[in-house]
What we know:
This protein is of the alpha/beta class. The protein has 2 domains: 6-21 and 138-285, Rossmann fold (3-Layer(aba) Sandwich); 28-135, Rossmann fold, CATH 3.40.50. The chain is 39% helix and 16% strand. The two termini are 29 Å apart.
Amino acid sequence: MDKNLISIDNHVFIKPEYLNHPYVSGNKLRKLKYNLIAAKKREKKVLLTFGGAFSNHIAAVAYAGKEQGFQTIGIIRGDELKNVKPLNATLSFSKTCGMSFKFVSRAHYRNRMSQDFIAQLEEEFGEFFLIPEGGTNALAVKGCEEILEDTDLNYDYVCCSVGTGGTISGLINSSSTNQKIIGFPALKGDFLREEITKFVSKSNWELIDDYHFGGYAKINDDLIQFINRFKDNHKVPLDPIYTGKMMYGIYDLISRGFFKKGSKILAIHTGGLQGIAGMNVKLKQQNKPLIV
Length: 292
Ligand SMILES: *Cc1c(COP(=O)(O)O)cnc(C)c1O
């Protein structure tokens, strides 16, 4: 076994991308790598992107921008947040990194990729390098092709959580055709298969739609209990939005005999741990047990 993997039992192994950075999701930094190289090449000074108030992507852009000398602007969904003080953990981290925010209504936010909206933003902020919500584009996929190393190609299954599809696309591209890549969407995403097909040409992959728990950032007591038990048993923290749902799905599928007998499963732990604080605030308001 690769010394960098965490062995959970004799057939499930975790690739700990969450250890790449104490706060920022491992896969988000990989998605930014070639985008920032392109931004520099085009001599852009400002990065502009979109996200929700708890977004791992927003935190990653703020952090990477600071590291590499870009100004950063976050267009945040929800204009009601404008007057909410103090900022939540994600936004206050991003602000500390130097990001400035523009809060827009949900209706406005829906048009974020329209030419009109982008033109308005250019008028307001001047020139910028645009990174889409969630960070997925061809350059992001290229960055995620660097997640799997040669020693990872011996695993029968590679599992990952799916949001916009960039990460799994990179994994598929660098996988061996003997491997099966299994994606666990963290949201109800009928668009995802089509999106992934834009970036990949192999067909050794599958999405399992049964573990989104009702949609993006939706959770239940069962999931929280699973996350807390998993950390207790294996000393591996999981986040409630992405990796917790994936790992819950993997264990449920194992119990149903989904995986070939004797096969080895590699689960990519993409990070997302910065989102735990925000979820705990919500759980506390509902008098529910917290993520420990
Ligand atoms: C964003 C994110 C994902 C999903 O990645 P996509 O490339 O959008 O599919 C998975 N896990 C974590 C922790 C993330 O932050």
